[in-house]
Design brief:
Helix 22 links the parallel strand 16 and strand 17. The protein is α/β, with parallel strands linked by helices. The protein is built from 24 helices and 17 strands. The strands form three sheets. A seven-stranded mixed sheet has the order 7-6-8-9-11-10-15, sandwiched between helices. The chain is 40% helix and 14% strand. Bound molecules: thiamine diphosphate. Thiamine diphosphate binds next to loops.
Length: 630
C-alpha cells in the first residue's frame, strides 16, 4: 500500500488530504516515530502526543511564512517529518544528523531553536511585535506544554503578551505531564478542566447535536457561545481571560477536525492574544508509552549497553538518602527532573523533604537559599545545562550571602545525543567566577559520595559536578568520609610530565599515563578534585619540580579549570614551564555519542597521550603510542 507520509514533502502537501487520509497519515507518522526513536533514542511519548496537533497546525497555518514556535522543541519530530526533513529522519540525534530539537540552521520551518523549556511565548511575542512594527501580517503560534508553562519565563511572557494585546496564538498542549506529572497550583487548575465531567458531558451532547451543521454557520456559533458561557461557570478560564487572553478550549487534541476549527477561529480572531487549551494524551497510539509516559518521555538508543555499574546519578541519590536519614534538616530540590536525578528512592522515604518545583531553575535556587537561611541544608539536584538558567540566583541569592546550599550538578561535561543545548560544558567557567562557591568534581562514584558528604557538612555553598555516565565500578565506602576542601591527590608518580585532571577526565588521564609509560615517558597524574579553591601548594610544587604541566577538563577552555591553573602559575611568577590545556574549544559542542565527541576533542586516553607528546618535540609522536583500539 502506498504510504501517504512518503508523499509529504512540505506542509502544502497536507492540505489536499481528506479527513480519512489524515487519520492514515497520523498512524503512519506514529509508526515512523516508534521505529526511529526506538533505534536512536529520543522523546517518544511527547511526540506521539502531538501528531494530530502538528498536522492541524500545518494545515491551518502557512509555515514558514507563519511562525510555529515549539517550546523545548523535543516534541517537534512530526513537525520535522512534515517540513521536508522526512528523508533525513533516520539520522535523528546521531552525530551529524537531525537535531532532537528545533534548530534554526536546520530548517526555515524552525523559526526559533530550543532545547531548554519555557522560551516559546517570549520568542513568539518578540516575533509578533516585530511583525506589527514592520506592518506585516503573518501569524505567530507558540506551542507550549503544561510542564513548560509553569516556568517563570513563560509566565513573564504571558504577562507581557496580555498587556500588549498583540495578535499571538498560544497553544497549550496539556497532557498533565511534565516528565513526571506536572506539579503546582497551575497544574491543579488545569486538572480541573481535564477532569470536569459535567463540562465534557455537555460538550459531547452539543457535539452530537451539531455534527450535522456546517461549522461557522450561525446556529453553530450560537451553540459555541452557550458552551463557552457554561464553561465559564464551571471552569477556570478566568485566569487566562484576566491575563488578557481569549481562552478557547478544552479541545480534544487527537481530533484533527476539532483542532482545525479552533485553530481557524483563533487565526481569524484578530483582537487579542488567544490561548487554545488542547488536551492530549502523552504517548498516544502506542500502548507501552501511553501506559508509562514517564519512562517513554525520553528513551535510550537501542544499542545502549545494558548497565551493570550504577550511574553517578544513582550513587548521588543513594548517598543523599543515607545523608537524609542522618540529618532531618536535609532537603532536596529538583526542578522537574526527579527521574533524571534518580530521586524516587529519597522521595519514597522522605516525601516531605523532596521538592519538585516544576521547570523553575531560578526559583529552585532561591527557594534553596531561603531554606538555608533557616538552618536547613538544601541540595539542589540539577543538570549542568539547566543550572545556567539560575546564574544570578547562585550568585546573588546564595553565594553573595554565603549560604550553605549544595549544588549536585548532574550531566556535567559532554552529554551526547541531546547536543548543543544540553552539553554541560560551561559550568566550571561560570561557577569558578563566583566568590564563596566551592567547585568540585569527583574522579569516580566513591569520590562523589565523599564530596557530597563534605558538601553537606560545609558551612559554605558547594557545587559537585558529575557526568552522565555509569560510575567506574569502584567499591563504595560503607562509612562516609569527608575530603579536605581544596585538596587534590597524586594518583600516579612520574618525573617527565604532570597531568592535572579533574572529574571525568581523571580515568582517561591515568590510562594515558600508562600508555606514555610504554613509550618511556613517566607522568605524574593528579586528581585535582577542586576547580575552586585550587590546591595551589600541590600545583606549584609540581610545576617547580616537573616543569611540564598538562591540564585536562571536560569543559570549555575559556574560564575553566585550566585557565584557573594558568592564572595561578602566572601569579606565582613561575617561568620555564611548559603548560598545555586540554578541553573544549570556544563553541557549542555538537550532538553525537559521548565516545565520538571525546575522541574528537582529544579527551579520551589516546587524545590526552597524543597531546602530552607534543610537549616532547624531540619525539616523533606519530611513531609512538600504539594505543588500545588502534
Ligand atoms: C530549562 C529546562 N529545564 C528542564 C528541562 C528538561 N525537560 C525537557 S522536556 C521536559 C518536560 C516538558 O513538559 P511539557 O512542557 O508538559 O511537555 P511534554 O513533554 O509533556 O509534552 C523537561 C522538564 C528542559 N528542557 N529545560
Amino acid at each position: 500500500m502506498s504510504r501517504l507520509l512518503d508523499k509529504i514533502d512540505s506542509p502544502a502537501d497536507l492540505k489536499m488530504l481528506t479527513q480519512e487520509g489524515l487519520a492514515q497519515l497520523a498512524s503512519e507518522i506514529r509508526e515512523k516515530l516508534v521505529a526511529v526513536v526506538s533505534a536512536n533514542g529520543g522523546h517518544l511519548a511527547s511526540n506521539l502526543g502531538v501528531v494530530e496537533l502538528t498536522i492541524a497546525l500545518h494545515r491551518i497555518f502557512d509555515s514558514p511564512r507563519d511562525k510555529i514556535v515549539w517550546d523545548v522543541g523535543h516534541q517537534a519530530y512530526t513537525h520535522k517529518l512534515l517540513t521536508g526533513r522526512r528523508q533525513r529522519f533516520a539520522s535523528l540525534r546521531q552525530y551529524k544528523g537531525l537535531s532532537g530539537f528545533t534548530c534554526r540552521s536546520e530548517s526555515q520551518h524552525d523559526p526559533f531553536g530550543a532545547g531548554h523549556a519555557s522560551t516559546s511565548v517570549s520568542a513568539a511575542l518578540g516575533m509578533a511585535i516585530a511583525r506589527d512594527l514592520s506592518n506585516d501580517d503573518y501569524y505567530v503560534v507558540a506551542v507550549i506544554g503544561d510542564g513548560a508553562i509553569t516556568g517563570g519565563m513563560a509566565l513573564e511572557a504571558l504577562n507581557q503578551a496580555g498587556h500588549l494585546g498583540s495578535r499571538l496564538i498560544v497553544v497549550l498542549n496539556d497532557n498533565g505531564m511534565s516528565i513526571s506529572p506536572t506539579v503546582g497550583a497551575l497544574a491543579k487548575l488545569l486538572d480541573r478542566v481535564r477532569f470536569d465531567h459535567r463540562y465534557h458531558q455537555v460538550k459531547e451532547r452539543s457535539k452530537r447535536l451539531l455534527s450535522a451543521l456546517p461549522w461557522g454557520n450561525r446556529l453553530w456559533r450560537a451553540s459555541q457561545q452557550v458552551e463557552s458561557g457554561f464553561k465559564g461557570l464551571i471552569m477556570p478560564t478566568t485566569l487566562w481571560e484576566e491575563l488578557g487572553f481569549t481562552y478557547m478550549g478544552p479541545i480534544d487534541g487527537h481530533n484533527i477536525r476539532e483542532l482545525e476549527i479552533a485553530l481557524t477561529q483563533a487565526r481569524d480572531y484578530r483582537l487579542k492574544p488567544t490561548l487554545i487549551h488542547v488536551i492530549t494524551t502523552k504517548g498516544k497510539g502506542y500502548l507501552p508509552a501511553e501506559g508509562d509516559a514517564v519512562y517513554f518521555h525520553g528513551v535510550p538508543a537501542k544499542n545502549t549497553t545494558a548497565k551493570v555499574i550504577p550511574t553517578y546519578s544513582e550513587v548521588f541519590a543513594q548517598t543523599t538518602l543515607r545523608l537524609a536519614r542522618e540529618n532531618p534538616r536535609l532537603v532536596v530540590i529538583t526542578p522537574a527532573m526527579p527521574e533524571g536525578n534518580c530521586l524516587s528512592i529519597v522521595e519514597a522515604e522522605f516525601p516531605q523533604r523532596v521538592f519538585d518545583v516544576g521547570i523553575c531553575e531560578q526559583h529552585a535556587v532561591t527557594f534553596a537559599a531561603g531554606l538555608a537561611t533557616q538552618g536547613f541544608k538544601p541540595i539542589v539536584a540539577i543538570y549542568s545545562t539547566f543550572l545556567q538558567r539560575a546564574f544570578d540566583q547562585i550568585m546573588h541569592d546564595v553565594c553573595l550571602q554565603d549560604l550553605p546550599v549544595v549544588f549536585a550538578i548532574d550531566r556535567g561535561g559532554i552529554v551526547g545525543d541531546d547536543g548543543k543545548t544540553h552539553q554541560g560544558t560551561f559550568d566550571f567557567s561560570y561557577l569558578t567566577a563566583i566568590p564563596n562557591l566551592i567547585v568540585s568534581a569527583p574522579k569516580d562514584e566513591n569520590e562523589l559520595q565523599r564530596l557530597l558528604y563534605t558538601a553537606v557538612k560545609s558551612p559554605h555553598p558547594m557545587a559537585i559536578r558529575y557526568p552522565r555516565n555509569p560510575g567506574l565500578g569502584v567499591k563504595l565506602d560503607t562509612e562516609l568520609h569527608s575530603i579536605p576542601i581544596g585538596k587534590g591527590e597524586i594518583i600516579r608518580q612520574g618525573e617527565d610530565v604532570a597531568i592535572l585532571a579533574i572529574g571525568v577526565t581523571v580515568a582517561p588521564a591515568l590510562e594515558a599515563a600508562e600508555e606514555l609509560a610504554s613509550n618511556n615517558i613517566e607522568a605524574t597524574v593528579v586528581n585535582a578534585r577542586f576547580a575552586k579553591p585550587l590546591d595551589s601548594e600541590l600545583i606549584i610544587g609540581l610545576a617547580n619540580h616537573i616543569k611540564r604541566i598538562v591540564i585536562v577538563e571536560e569543559n570549555i577552555l575559556s574560564g575553566g579549570f585550566g585557565s584557573s591553573v594558568g592564572a595561578l602559575l602566572q601569579k606565582s611568577g613561575m617561568s620555564n614551564i611548559q603548560v598545555k590545556s586540554i578541553g573544549l574549544p570556544d563553541e557549542f559542542i555538537e550532538q553525537g555519542a559521548q565516545d565520538i565527541l571525546r575522541a574528537k576533542y582529544g579527551l579520551d586516553a589516546k587524545g590526552i597521550a597524543q597531546q602530552v607528546l607534543t610537549l616532547f618535540p624531540s619525539l616523533d609522536a606519530s611513531s609512538l603510542l600504539m594505543v588500545k583500539g588502534d
